[in-house]
Amino acid sequence: MNFLQDLWEQKMAEAWEKPERYIREQLIQSVLWAKTHSRFYKKAYASYQDNFTLEEFAQFPFTEAKQIAADPFSFLCMKPDEISRIVTMQSSGSTGQNKKIFFSTADQQLTVDYFQYGMRTLVNPGEKCVICLPGNNPGGVVDLLVKGLSALGAVPIIYGSIDNLQAAWQFLEREKPHCLVAMPVQILALCRSRFAPKQFYLPKILFSADVLAKSIVEEITQKWQCTVYHHYGMTEMGYGGALSCFDDSFHMHTRAMDLYFEIVDVQTGQLLKEGEMGEIVFSTLNRRGMPLLRYRTGDMGRMKKKLCPCGYKAPVLYDVQGRIQNSFAQHGKRIWQKDLDEILFSFAGILDFQIIIAGDRLQIQLYKNKIVLPEGRIKEKLNALLGSTWQYDLLLTEQEKDLPCFYGKRMIKWEKAMDG
Predict the structure, then answer these.
(1) In 3-state terms, what secondary structure has residue 234?
(2) What is the tens place of the pLDDT at every residue in 45-82?
(3) Which of the residues 64, 218, 244, 289 could staple to 104 if both were Cys, CB 3.0 to 4.6 A apart?
(4) How far apart are CA 171 and CA 192, in angstroms?
């Protein structure tokens, strides 16, 4: 264990001896900094006191993506020449405006420190970690992960998105990594590929950048006898948000030193009780370039504060469903893409799928390998999930070379807006 890890352990011990006190103190500092240096928060939080309880903070205004898209520089708390990284992202709203997220060098170092600390669960010094994520821009998630792994003493190897399964297998068999960081569907396709060896030793996999279905975890752990971890994060968080431990792939320890999480009712915005499903909201505790307070992620999940069996004392995120926009509802019943993942990926021949919605009819495009799919069983399971409310067309396409079809976060495509 190096000095940084000792420091993290010391800070965590101090923070979680009295966690509510630590969070409250950090939030007060963050709110004061934002009100002093940000045009947006100076106005939005003008009537709110600087000394508050966590219960009172739950009544403070939210920050929403559309507000950042409308005027990103109003959130800036440092001089432009003190900002080392600007990320421009497509907003999920209907305005078409892009969001800009600003980071200082110190802000990015917080993420490097978090990655260094978190990845020691998966790799030891000297062990190889292959990163199968897109992009390698300076200051991006891959770059910061590489820095965190390097500081840990591990050996990071960037592969990038998997677009050729044969080439990917040749690479992995040559490098023999201890750990793999990738998106779930790409690794499922790799696992189901005709190029897959009969035996492959890969102790640990970290899935990120997409929701994770239990059907995917069960197949991969069974075939490769590996331990699967899951990471939840987004650019606005500084990439890192929560990481599962060895005890449960779907219960993720929050990045509690740097982020304060809340779960709120989507409609009313009121704080929900522990364990209730709602929208994930976070506030940054230590960021100075562009702090975000009560930011609505648009993701749904649950949170609990029960002590994890591994001994970690921070709150745990679980049952994360993904973006609210990545679901559809009618007559009070909401279906998530993750629900469809569980059903469709349980069939060995399916590599990926795309949902297209037009009115009250779905088009379910399945991308498969050469295995003959039992269409009758697939429709039986889909009917049980969708009920009589939804009509659908099931289309099958055989993928040449068994390649996965979508290389980013998978989203439902809407051809016509619906109420729900």
Answers:
(1) coil
(2) 999 999 999 999 999 999 999 999 999 999 999 999 99
(3) 289
(4) 17
